[in-house]
Every structure is written in C-alpha cells, then in structure tokens.
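About this split. The held-out portion is used to measure sequence recovery: a designer receives only the structure tokens and must propose an amino acid at every position. Recovery is the fraction of positions where the proposal matches the reference. Here is one held-out target exactly as it appears in the evaluation file.
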C-alpha cells in the first residue's frame, strides 16, 4: 500500500511538473513611453498594477468549477488559492502606494486610492478612461496579466501537493519580497555551461557592467567543468549558491539530502570565496519537512518571483520584456535567468538598456545572502 501511494504521489508530482508551460510575454512597444526617468517608471508601474488588479478582481468572480475549468485541473486547493490571492492584493496595494509618490511629477494613472478597498474598486473601472494615449496598451496588457495570473493560480491550486515558488513553506525562505522598493536581484540557474559557453560569457559581461548576481550551480555540471580544466576566474566577483547535484525535483527524490551535501561540498571546495549558503530548488519543489536538514547544513531556500522563461519558445527580447513588465508590476524582486542557455545574456543586455535611466537598483549578491 505504501509503495502504491508513493508511486501515485510521484506520478502526480511528475504530471504537474511536466505540464506544458504557458510561456507568455508582453510587447513593450505597446506602451507609448520610454522608461527614461524614475517618474515615467512609476507611471508604467501604476498602469501595470491596475491592469493586474483588474484581472485578479475578475478571477474572484469565478466559482470553484469555473476556476477548475479555467486552470485545466480536476482538483484545486482553494484554501491556498485564496491565500495567494490575498498576498497578491497586499503586494499590489504596497506597490501602488510606492508608485504614487511621484504623482506630483506626472499624474497619469494616479487615482484617489486610500485603501485596498479603493484599489479594488478602481481596478474594476480604470480601463474605461485611460485616455487615447494609452489605448493601444490596455487590451494587450489585460491579456498578458490574465495568462500570468493563471500561471500563479495554477501553482497555488497544486500547492502543497506540488510545491513551487508561488508560496513559502516557512518564514526562513526568501522570495524577493524582503527587498526594498525598486531593488532587484539577478540570479542564474542550471549552470555552468561547458567551458567557453554561455556561463563564461555572461559572467564576464556582468563584470564589465560592474554587476553581480547569484549563480545557482548544479553539482554534476560543476564537476564536469572542473574535470575539463581549471575553473579559473569563471565566477570572479559573483556569488555561487547550490541547486543540488542534478536538475531534479528535491521533493520526491529519495537522495535529496545527499544531493545537497555533495553539491555544497563541491562548491565550498572549489569556490570558497564565491559560495553563499543558499539553495534554489529545481522547479521550486522542496520538502515541507526539509527545514531541519537545511538548518543543519546552514542553508536557506532562495526562491524567485520574476521568471524570465528563457528556457522555452520566447525570444531573448520577449523574455526580457516579460521580466520588465513584472518588474513594473512588483517593483522589487528576484529575477531568474538560465545561464546554461544562450538567451540569458542578450535578454539581460536588453533589460539593462531599457532600465538604465529608470531609477531602479540592483541588489548586491553578498548583501542579499546576509539578509535575515
């Protein structure tokens, strides 16, 4: 009976993990202004917040059968869905308050919103009177946020049977919400690539831009790089966390503890100066009973809240546009790129070019690692 149950749990987890991702981006050309000042960043931020709030409000009108049909699921954890919705509303309210600070410089999308109730009310009607200047943005933004919200609600509906980055399992986990307004952390996963590949080029590009990020490495790929030749200055000036020995769910893997031990030992031995005690779980999947072991290894789970989706059909530019739209929406967070794939660097280049004058900041990887 136990074996049958374990097999069933594994199949359910695999099915959720293997479900086709809804890769979605937003063409920033639909937005009529460049983000060439902090005030214009705030204008675009207020607009995206209201657009997503409208979609979130609409989703609350669905009853349980309708929500199941929309998400393509037979069963949903409605308790978690409601909790995630409540957290999203709180983030939207906080973000909108921050974005309102520049309303004296530019009053676009500044409404008399004094409470979360006001935000809900305004979100339901704001699209009716945005003015002709922003008309071409309204519907594409609505479509993007509808699909993006579905991503989040589907993960919430499966949680905690299938864990993901959509919710934390404890207050010790990090997901970007602990950052200050306008601050973003760059993170990279699934590397390193073979010698001379995309990881080398990306790390070098970051150094030239005087930026740093956290590279969450896979133990087996780091071992392969080490066997092929010296690591040298590959991660010089960067931070290195672990993602386990293989890119594999650590929620159902019997040897998950050994995976963390081996990868941690490899990084500490080869990259002691760059090592930070953070674990990025593949797929965001980790065990609810794993915190004691993580504590014994002096590790903390580091999730993300802005996924570039650069591992699918999106072009590098579309991936960057998705990231920028979510940066405007959440106004802070942890961005996840995949340094083992070639789209990460051109996507990052586009992103830096289009935010250079926007007043945002990039969190230092060591400062983030020290946060409590």
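Reference sequence for scoring:
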């Amino acid at each position: 009976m136990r074996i049958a149950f374990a097999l069933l749990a594994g199949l359910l987890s695999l099915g959720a993990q293997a479900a086709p991702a809804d890769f979605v981006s937003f063409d920033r050309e639909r937005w009529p202004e460049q983000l060439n000042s902090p005030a214009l960043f705030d204008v675009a931020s207020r607009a995206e917040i209201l657009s997503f709030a409208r979609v979130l409000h609409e989703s609350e009108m669905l009853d349980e059968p309708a929500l199941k049909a929309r998400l393509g699921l037979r069963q949903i954890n409605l308790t978690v869905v409601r909790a995630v919705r409540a957290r999203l509303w709180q983030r939207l309210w906080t973000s909108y308050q921050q974005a309102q600070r520049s309303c004296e410089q530019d009053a676009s999308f500044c409404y008399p919103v004094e409470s979360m109730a006001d935000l809900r009310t305004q979100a339901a009607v704001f699209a009716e009177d945005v003015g002709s200047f922003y008309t071409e943005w309204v519907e594409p933004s609505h479509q993007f946020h509808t699909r993006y919200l579905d991503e989040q609600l589907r993960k919430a509906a499966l949680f905690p049977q299938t864990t993901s980055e959509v919710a934390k399992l404890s207050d010790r986990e990090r997901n970007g919400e602990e950052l200050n307004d306008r601050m973003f952390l760059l993170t990279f996963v699934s590397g390193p690539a073979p010698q001379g590949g995309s990881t080398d080029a990306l790390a070098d590009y970051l150094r030239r831009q005087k930026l740093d990020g956290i590279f969450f490495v896979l133990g087996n790929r780091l071992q392969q790089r080490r066997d092929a030749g010296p690591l040298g200055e590959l991660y010089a000036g960067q931070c290195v966390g672990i993602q386990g020995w293989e890119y594999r769910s650590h929620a159902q893997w019997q040897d998950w503890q050994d995976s963390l031990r081996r990868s941690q030992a490899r990084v500490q031995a080869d990259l002691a100066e760059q090592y930070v005690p953070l674990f990025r779980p593949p797929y965001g999947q980790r065990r609810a009973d794993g915190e004691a072991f993580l504590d014994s290894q002096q590790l903390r789970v580091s999730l993300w809240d802005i996924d570039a989706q650069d591992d699918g059909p999106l072009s590098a530019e579309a991936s960057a546009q998705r990231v920028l739209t979510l940066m405007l929406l959440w106004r802070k967070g942890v961005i996840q790129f995949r340094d083992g794939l070639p789209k990460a660097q051109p996507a990052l280049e586009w992103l830096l070019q289009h935010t250079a004058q926007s007043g945002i900041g990039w969190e230092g990887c060591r400062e983030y690692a020290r946060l409590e």
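Annotator remark: The chain has two domains: 31-158, 183-370.
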